[in-house]
Amino acid sequence: MADYSNTEQLTLSQNRLQKAPIELPQYDNNGNLRHVCEVFDFNEMCEEYLIELEIRNYSENTIKTYHSIIKSFIKYIEEEKIYDDGKFLKSFKKYITELKRSKVVTQNYIYLNTVVCKKFLEYNQIYYLDEIKNPKRTKSLPKSLNENEIKALIDAVKWDETDSLYKQKIKMRDKVILALLYSSGLRVSELVNLILRDIDFDDRTIRIRGKGDKDRLVLFDNITKDLILRYIEIRDSNSEYLFINKNGNKLTSRYIQMMIKKYGEEAGIEKKVTPHILRHSFATHLLKNGVDIRAIQQLLGHASLSTTQIYTSVDMDTLKLFYDQAKLK
Predict the structure, then answer these.
(1) What is the rounded CA–CA span in Å between residue 317 and residue 323?
(2) Rounded to whole angstroms, how far apart are CA atoms 52 and 99?
(3) DSSP one-letter code for 66
(4) Is 193 in the same domain as 319?
(5) Residue 107, in any domain of the structure
(6) Helix, strand or coil for residue 10?
(7) How confident is the model at residue 222 (pLDDT cuts 50, 70, 90)?
(8) Is 154 found in the same domain as 9?
(9) Which of 113, 11, 106 is nearest to 71 (CA)?
(10) Is 218 helix (H, G, I), strand (E, B) or coil?
(11) Which of 83, 112, 140 is the last residue in one of the domains?
(12) Which of 2, 116, 141, 172 gives 313 a disulfide partner, CB atoms 3.0 to 4.6 angstroms apart?
């Protein structure tokens, strides 16, 4: 299930023809009221919006989530008798209320539905939901793995001479993925799209095209550097992508998620282990070791420092240590 606790920013380019706002109600040539879905082609608007998200370099998972949310809302309003903006607003409130009554959705999912629907409409110059306030999100400290758990996770990837060459390649690739996710703090969507020419082995940096078409540099350590170089030697492919499957195609985010879960279980880690947890762990461990939070913000590619602060959960013992060090003598 998608993680709705960390939504991508919805700041979109408005470099497009501005549409004149359409006031409701509207009537046909016979003087009959037109349904709002006859006034606006919401399905076409949705496709245009998703293309904009893709151009702005939003992840495949995010686009898929937004697509699902918008389509569900469109389907709902198609079945409602909506002829004016007041009815539109009332139907949206009813839609959110029905979502809240469902036991299978979280408060963060309610928040995401509200934000996505409002931004989708605003992008298309429709402001019928202006008075809707975004609901509260549940805030909880993100869980992270400790250093021993990280080591156990990476060490869980093992191979020997009894493995076929193909299995050795797969396991080596998986080990590199785990090491790189942790040592660089990459998003899984960024990892699967890594291309070789963006890696500088001398500087141990990778150029990443992140959200909003913003480039940033991430670092990786010497151990991960050696692992990547060994993997490139044995992978036997001319693909521009660093991580590929047996057909030479880039890996999917889903594969990475399942692979990490499997090795987490083999390592005996009782916590949930995901690519996002490795990103949390990367940020948390840097902070615990005295790295300035603004440097961590840059490495993670966050536009807002407040987002970085959510990622960097620190245990109470570490907080006490920072507190004692900072106190005036």
Answers:
(1) 10
(2) 27
(3) H
(4) yes
(5) yes
(6) coil
(7) very high
(8) no
(9) 113
(10) strand
(11) 140
(12) 141
Q: What is the pLDDT of residues 16-68, one digit of tens each?
A: 444 546 888 999 899 999 999 999 999 999 999 999 998 888 888 889 999 99
ω into 135 cis (within 30 of 0): no
Look at residues 142, 143, 253, 240 and name the one whose alpha carbon lies nearest to residue 192: 253
Question: 206 and 217 in contact (C-beta within 8 Å)?
Answer: yes
Do 161 and 244 share a domain, yes or no? yes
CA distances from 221 to 1, 70, 150 (A): 32, 41, 15
Tokens at 328, concatenated: 């005036």
The whole-angstrom separation of Cα 39 and Cα 77 is 13
Sign of CA dihedral 241, 245, 247, 252: negative
Together in a domain, 13 and 82: yes
For the question of whether the overall pTM of this predicted structure is more than 0.90, the answer is no
Q: What percent of the chain has pLDDT over 90?
A: 56
Residue 177 lies in a domain: yes
- pLDDT for the residue numbered 7: 45
User: Mean per-residue pLDDT for 309-314?
Assistant: 64
Q: How far apart are CA 135 and CA 326, in angstroms?
A: 37
By annotation, the residues acting in catalysis are 187, 211, 276, 279, 302, 311
The pLDDT tens digits of the residues spanning 135-150 come to 887 666 567 899 999 9
With respect to residue 329, please indicate whether it lies within any of the assigned structural domains: no
Alpha helices in the chain (DSSP H): 36-39, 42-55, 60-78, 85-101, 107-123, 147-155, 165-184, 188-192, 222-235, 253-266, 275-288, 293-300, 305-311, 316-326
β-bridge partners, 316: none
β-strand 215-219 against 205-209: which pairing, if any?
antiparallel
Lowest-confidence segment of 15-29, 70-84, 179-193, 275-289 by average pLDDT:
15-29
Backbone angles phi, psi at 224, to 5 degrees: -65, -40
Give the residue among 91, 84, 50, 86 at the shortest CA–CA distance from 68. 50
Q: Which domain, by its residues, includes 127?
A: 1-140
pLDDT at 237: 86
Distance of CA 167 to the CA centre of its chain: 30
Which residues are within 8 A (CB) of 234 and not within 5 positions of it... i.e. 6 or more apart?
165, 168, 169, 172
